[in-house]
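Onboarding guide, step 5: your first structure request.
Type a short instruction followed by the sequence, for example:

Predict the 3D structure of this protein.
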Amino acid sequence: MDVIAEKAQVLITVKTTPQPSTKYKDVVCTAGVRLGEGGPRWIRLYPIPFRYLDTDLQFKKYDVIELEIRRRHEDSRRESYSPDWSSVRKVDHYDPWERRVDALRDLPLTNTCELSAAAKLHHAAPSLGLGGVADITGIHFETHPGWNEKQKAILSRALEEVDLFGTGEGTKKLEAPRLVATYRYRCTAPACDGHRGQILDWELTALQQRFRSATDLELKRHIETKFLDEMFNSKRDTHFFMGNFEAPIKRDKFSVLGVWYPRITDVETLPLF
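The system replies with structure tokens like these:
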């Protein structure tokens, strides 16, 4: 049975780092806030072969896009939709932070403990959320293992094939990031005893590419400067964009898809919650 398409307007808040894909060469998971009738609500758009989209179809964080979507029924997470990437049209960009805060202020605040507990009880519990952070211990680093043999074959084949999706950046081989970075933190649940949240944000991969000639020690410091010093300084009201896994067995595991860090003055001017 065909799933009827519908039009949506989405404020993009999350773009995860690209991953090799047998069908689409490599894809990203994108999430954001669906705007319009019914008030703002979370939406996940997958798959998007972002690097293969024509330049005029590519979008950035906090762009507002219009596109056709279909409910992704093979994914029981209620926020998940399949996009028609050829229909993407950029209509706005939310800047400065005050506009972004205003767009998200009617969304409920949650935390990692609450999201995880709900997902254990029901597979259709919220799979996306803006989670509060009580305190952060730091970032733990591990060396990325690199692409496995299957992923290497996919990426090699992608370079040999005619680009089916457009021009984009798809002529460049997708490189694995050098480091995997994981936050160690406590969420705002009173009894929270701590979490580890891997950072899946494409910004992390882009930063590593920018400083590819740095030593491991230097690269770790660049990441800490951006993802700790800047995003968690005392003038910021910082939260995590959280998302879980599609596999039911891992549905209660939430990763850090991105970081929300408006200035405290912006939040006080336009109350978020």
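Each response can be followed by summary notes, for example: The chain has a mean pLDDT of 90.
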